[in-house]
Design a protein that fits this description.
Largest sheet: 10 strands, mixed
Strand content: 25-35%
Oligomer: single chain
Structural class: alpha+beta
Bound molecules: beta-D-glucopyranose
Helix content: 10-25%
Number of strands: 43
Number of helices: 18
């Protein structure tokens, strides 16, 4: 008997609250050791209503090898129902397989919300707070302590009767605020910070929970606690409160089904009562204050005397409710405290050894103890607690006041912080075992791993994984501490890496709904999604002028382009055409916006007389609007003063915008082609070609020099196909020479860095790419590792070579895009066709490492590549999952190459490797230049023991604070 197929629905196993009536089905064939996976010839999908067995869709036997995201083509699934999916497959060796999944649907239509009201507890409106304008950020002073400005989260309870014989109960709930829900004292679901962050001006997500086990016949209670959250709490750069509203509200419906299929619905109504509890305030960024003395035991169960509580008011909220899409935020891991430090000035600091997004669970000694926990990501050069955030309302401080009882564990509920270190006050004795760091993240499946003979690279890879984990928290954020905003540029540059490392298809699909919702009527895509209402004034009325400097905050090249590039990245790694279709119109409007904005001349040309040819060229160049350019390119950060950050925009903004317009026009052409929109495809192709030529004519001279000499412009231009064929190699050679002249250091910012190593390698400079990767002095990836980083920093110089620790973010994923290179080019697993249907296996076996092993859980199953070079011989083990083929590309320096699957393959027949396992053996040709030791400054890969010594030194230096 073969192992059953692994069937998923919208990428989830047995989804409990599926958000769509027409889902997509996928399956993988579990590996059966030793055997060659057969090729799928046909499949059938059948969907039945659970219980009755009524068939909604029977696809019949379809002759096809497809197995990823097959669209439901039968009767729509109904709301709040259960379905059984059965998949059957036939293979070329005569075998068959089957697999199943169970679906529970959410409430799929707005009219399903017909048995409840929004309810608003009696409350003080949320206090206006934070800076209203950019410049006020630097002068903002809180008027009073948080406990005087913030109000307690609200508790809402409602009692109702349940008939006997209920076999299925689903609670659907949401809030304006963030909430947790209970049924008879049992927590509903394991989601955190529900309903999640959305563009609340356009829609609000709700959750669906299976609460069958918590219900009993007779009197029952649904209870919710709601805190300020993203809706009314202090968020973003400005720490501004009340972004979407000043009053917290909740709404829920409980759908009860009895054995005979009858469903009754109970919903939030004026029957609810509200009060407050031990949480005196809770804010995402300020933190949570919990005072046990205010506990109201039993409030979430029947029998509680709520006569002193207040009635609630039924009210109307116009925002459409939508079922939550994808994987929710959960508590995904726990980290024990590594040690307790005493800083030179006597602070007691708990070190968790890892920068995370989450919160601390504390064992309080009880007896009225008041414990204060302050969170930060770094210690300064002297080992003192260093608060690395600036701007209003970013306290990241939790307070717990214990009741008279004994010790107990406590964890904040409606907040999270970005931290590694916690300064503790209020305890006589600070013991590591009394602290646990709880990691919060959208609960996405990890898809890739990397291990090599150089532990510094392994650490780098893990740093990227951690930065993704911390910043994929409901929406893709820039950082989990300072701004926590959905900066579109950060998401875009990291999206391909994100999709390599984790299953992000649903996560990005949900965020893209927000991107579409926030797109401006003129097609502009904001730099931040959800777009903060407080920044709305920046767009101005009636027609914004995008050439004003301040407009750099509203929309920018490489930021707004997320609308095209994020779906494109998901399609590339997941084979998901749906996300392209869903966003196609928004992409077109964005590229249309760019085209329209081309009429704005750059400042240097305004008021000058242009020739007809110049005019024609300028009409193709999106270069007169404010833009971030190659943001934070390191050599621009040496400029003194507060304008340093704007130096990269000043020097690269114009060219980067112009290049990006050509680049995304080309990608939009590809998307249109794929969707069968040939007219659009033709128009975009023509536009892309014309733009690229115009960019080259405007910014590139015949010697291959760009008007901006920063590396990023050349990198982008090469990647975007802007450089005419005759100059490509010259430009690439210049770029390589500039890296060499810079002591093998990169000088790229957020926007160019994802392409740097590929561009070098693809133009004959793989050696330079390697040297940049293995570089360990500033600025470089391994410099961060050597400085003890456990996540990716916002700025290459977050810790300067002289040890100065800067007030910047230590958890920004943008530069983490190198992890994608490590998987693709060191390990050798890259998608050569969408969804890895064809793998390109081109491991850099001559990079100087002894060994590398990577895997990627592709939509078809796990692809693996592991190689080792020892005594001049290579051994590569490769697994191609069922449903995929692979192209194997090996360097010419190898001789005697043998590729063995079930049998020995004919020499050179390595382009269409079928699914299965292979072993490749070869010798390094005599005289093969070895990269080891040849780089200037001895920037070479380290062997395991050397690297461990380095890491040990790093660890020691991290502990320098301990005196
Ligand atoms: C954020 C970035 C963002 C940028 C815009 C910063 O404050 O943290 O990551 O993309 O602003 O340039």
């Amino acid at each position: 008997m073969s192992i059953p197929l692994d069937v998923t629905v919208e990428r989830l196993h047995d989804p409990r609250a599926l958000w769509t009536p027409r889902p997509r089905y996928s399956w993988t064939v579990p590996r059966e050791p030793g055997s060659r996976p057969p090729a799928q010839l046909a499949h059938s999908v059948q969907v039945r209503e659970a219980g009755t067995g009524r068939v909604l869709w029977d696809a019949g036997r379809v002759a096809s090898g497809e197995q990823v995201l097959l669209a439901h083509a039968g009767e729509d699934l109904a709301s709040n129902c259960e379905y059984d999916v059965q998949v059957r497959t036939w293979y070329d060796d005569g075998s068959e397989r089957t697999g199943r999944s169970r679906i529970g649907t959410s409430l799929l239509h707005p009219e399903d919300w017909n048995a409840s009201s929004w309810v608003e507890p009696v409350q003080e409106p949320v206090t206006p707070d934070g800076a209203e304008r950019f410049h006020q950020m630097f002068s903002w002073r809180p008027q009073s302590a948080p406990e005087e400005r913030l109000h307690p989260p609200l508790r809402v309870r409602q009692v109702f009767e349940v008939p006997s014989g209920v076999v299925r109960a689903r609670l659907y709930a949401t809030a304006q605020g963030v909430y947790a829900a209970w049924v008879n004292g049992e927590r509903a679901g394991d989601e955190e910070l529900a309903p999640g962050s959305d563009s609340y001006t356009s829609h609000l997500s709700f959750q669906g929970y299976d609460v069958t086990a918590a219900l009993r016949p007779g009197t029952n209670v649904v209870a919710l606690e709601v805190a300020d959250g993203w809706f009314a709490g202090r968020v973003g750069m400005f720490g501004l409160s009340r972004e979407y509203g000043e009053r917290l509200r909740v709404r829920w419906q409980l759908h009860l089904t009895t054995a005979d299929g009858t469903t009754t619905v109970v919903g939030s109504s004026a029957a609810a009562r509200s009060g407050t509890g031990p949480i005196r305030y809770s804010d995402l960024a300020i933190g949570e204050f919990h005072d046990d003395r205010y506990e109201t035991p039993g409030w979430d169960r029947p029998g509680f005397d709520d006569s002193a509580w207040e009635p609630v008011r039924e009210c109307t909220v116009g925002t459409p409710l939508v079922p939550f899409v994808g994987e929710p935020v959960r508590r995904v891991a726990e980290l024990p405290a590594v040690e307790v430090l005493t800083t030179p000035s006597g602070d007691r600091v708990v070190d968790f050894g890892q920068v995370i997004a989450g919160r601390v669970r504390l064992r309080t000694p009880g007896g009225g103890a008041r414990v204060v926990l302050e969170h930060t990501e770094v210690l300064d050069a002297r080992g003192e607690f260093f608060f690395n955030l600036f701007g209003p309302n970013k306290d990241q401080t939790d307070v717990h006041v214990a009741g008279p009882g004994g010790p107990r564990w406590w964890e904040p509920r409606h907040t999270f912080h970005g931290f590694r270190y916690v300064r503790v006050s209020g305890l006589d004795e600070v013991r590591a075992e009394d602290f646990v760091a709880v990691v919060l993240s959208s609960d996405l499946p990890q898809r890739a791993d990397f291990a090599s003979s150089d532990p510094r690279l392994d650490r780098l890879f893990q740093n990227v994984v951690w930065s993704q984990r911390s910043n994929f928290l409901s929406i893709p954020t820039d950082c989990p501490q300072r701004e926590r905003l959905g900066w579109t540029g950060d998401a875009q540059v990291f999206a391909p890496t994100a999709a390599t490392l984790a299953g992000v298809g649903n996560f990005f699909a949900r965020w893209m709904a927000n991107v579409r919702a926030d797109q401006r009527p003129d097609g502009a895509v904001p730099n931040i999604v959800p777009w903060p209402p407080a920044l709305e004034y920046l767009f101005g009325e009636p027609a914004p002028s995008y050439s004003d400097d301040i407009m750099v905050l509203t929309t920018s090249a490489a930021w707004g382009d997320a609308v095209v590039l994020v779906p494109w990245a998901v399609h590339g790694r997941d084979g998901d055409v749906g996300i392209l279709r869903e966003n196609f119109e928004a992409m077109r409007r964005w590229v249309g916006f760019q085209t329209e904005q081309c009429r704005i001349l750059p400042e240097r040309l305004r008021g000058t007389e242009l020739t007809a040819a110049q005019r024609e060229r300028q009409d193709l160049l999106w270069n007169g609007v404010a833009a971030f350019g190659d943001w934070l390119a390191p050599s621009t950060l040496t400029v003194e003063g507060p304008t340093a950050m704007m130096e990269a925009p000043r020097r690269t903004g114009e060219a980067v915008s112009a290049i990006y317009h050509g680049y995304v026009s080309g990608i939009l052409a590809d998307v249109a082609r794929l969707l069968g929109e040939d007219e659009v495809a033709d128009a975009c192709t023509a536009r892309a070609l014309a733009v690229r030529e115009a960019v080259a004519a405007e910014y590139l001279d015949e010697r291959g020099r760009f008007s901006s000499d920063l590396q990023g412009v050349a990198v982008l231009a090469l990647h975007a196909g802007v450089v005419p064929e005759r100059l490509r190699q010259v430009v690439a050679d210049r770029l390589a020479a500039s890296v060499r002249a810079n002591g093998n250091h990169l000088d790229t910012g957020f926007v160019a860095v994802p392409f740097l190593l590929d561009v070098l390698a693809d133009h004959g400079h793989l050696d330079v790419a390697r040297d940049v990767l293995f570089q360990d002095t500033y600025p470089s990836w391994l410099y961060e590792v050597a400085a003890g980083a456990t996540t990716i920093w916002e700025s290459w110089d977050a810790v300067r070579p002289d040890g100065t620790v800067q007030a910047t973010s230590y958890n920004h994923y943008a530069y983490g895009c190198v992890a994608d290179w490590m998987v693709r080019r060191l390990g050798g697993i890259a998608p050569a066709a969408p969804g890895y249907r064809v793998l390109r296996v081109e491991p850099d076996v001559l990079c100087g490492l002894d060994h590398v092993r990577v895997h990627v859980d592709t939509p078809y199953g796990r692809a693996e590549s592991g190689w080792r070079v020892s005594q001049g011989a290579l051994r590569l083990e490769l697994t191609v999952p069922a449903g995929c083929t692979a192209e194997l590309v090996l360097p010419p320096e190898l001789t005697g190459v043998q590729v063995r699957g079930a049998d020995l393959l004919a020499p050179g027949a390595w382009t269409g490797l079928a699914a299965g396992s292979y072993v490749v053996t070869a010798s390094l040709a005599a005289g093969t230049p070895q990269p080891v030791g040849k780089c200037p400054g001895d920037r070479r890969p380290l062997c395991t023991s050397e690297a461990e010594e380095v890491l040990e030194e790093v660890a020691k230096s991290l502990c320098r604070a301990v005196t």
